[in-house]
Amino acid sequence: MSSSSTAPPVKPPMRDALVTAAFRLFLERGYEQTTVDDIVALAGVGRRSFFRYFPSKEDVVFPDHEGCLADMTAFLAASGPECEPVARVCDAARLVLRMYAENPTFSVQRYRLTKRVPGLRAYELSVVWRYERALAEYLRDRYAGRPDGTLRADVVAAAVVAAHNNALRSWLRSDGEGDAAATVDHALGYVRAAFGGPAAGPAADGAPAALFGGPVEHPDDVVVLVSRRDAPLWRVVQEIETAFGRA
Amino acid sequence: MSSSSTAPPVKPPMRDALVTAAFRLFLERGYEQTTVDDIVALAGVGRRSFFRYFPSKEDVVFPDHEGCLADMTAFLAASGPECEPVARVCDAARLVLRMYAENPTFSVQRYRLTKRVPGLRAYELSVVWRYERALAEYLRDRYAGRPDGTLRADVVAAAVVAAHNNALRSWLRSDGEGDAAATVDHALGYVRAAFGGPAAGPAADGAPAALFGGPVEHPDDVVVLVSRRDAPLWRVVQEIETAFGRA
Q: Cα separation of A157 and A160, whole Å?
């Protein structure tokens, strides 16, 4: 027998034990009816241990956001100038999705809890705001010196967060069934289509994203087709193929 | 002398008196150091009068948002199908700007207060969220049945709110100097360029032509498609089918 197999199983850290105890009680009794004393009693630790990890009862509902925010900030700070900015913030948003998708059961439970408790909704809004600011700060830096740089940064950050959350919530509403990553990719592709630079690039994920609209840097890369609405569709497609040089 | 000049000046309503008293104290002593008792004493009314108008001390900081939300909801509900949806939510956002711009001194004071008090920041986030939801609900209704209707609605609503707030904050930071409406118009114009129909004109009708930008003379008859040349062909055809209403 190797030493690793004889070692006792790793005890979950106290922080995780507190989260587990808290959610068991929140689901059994309700959030408001559960006190910090109840949580520490079930977890078998003292009050001071709770407050070492969580400033308040609300914080135990969102135990992973601080870490995710730190990861996101580090990810963005590590971006080189070769990263296409919209693609980069989309990838940063995917870090949040990954956190949710890693533990579907917990994420769905929290989603239901948060919907029911107004104080938790407010907490969640402030968390979402911090993610949005992290994205916007990065974009403001990247767009510095461009006309409307801060405007563009704020709007793109808001659009990315809205698209991510639209997809995330639809996945949570489906009880965590389905492919969360694909749903979010599709939603982020819509934002990239509106604002993004070239679809290709280091972060390109094959999304048909940057297809339409958006400010165009290189007009040679763009096809404009004008057609009568009553044109036969086959004819339009034929024109498209010709225009794209793929007939 | 006319009767109007002899009439006693109209006494400001009690609600306004409470707001005025509250802000005088917030500025003199600070928000946390001011109690509801202090406010009612200065305004010369009882506690019950305060709570008749404001559920909490926080609410007196934002006395006009409930009314503005109601105005916005009514404005959107009164929209006919001829309204281009993105233009309409931009106009709805201008109602918020108008509320701020009507009283620059008060708006700037509140901006500074809100920046200093975390609890007020959280309150403001929840107000902003409610505006965003009002816009998104309208757009979801207008985009019902369209591919990605709720996604588009949520993203456009978030983008409009972000653009509005970017412009509003830059005006507030300048102490309410400058043309707030022009600043907001410019910011909203950026969002319409990304998502909207024709940039100007009452003829905007949400025709699919407008999907892809590009002002069009006769939107009913013509479809304009702008695409990157490297777009996958299947995606282009899909968009064409949608634009022609034949998917």
A: 5
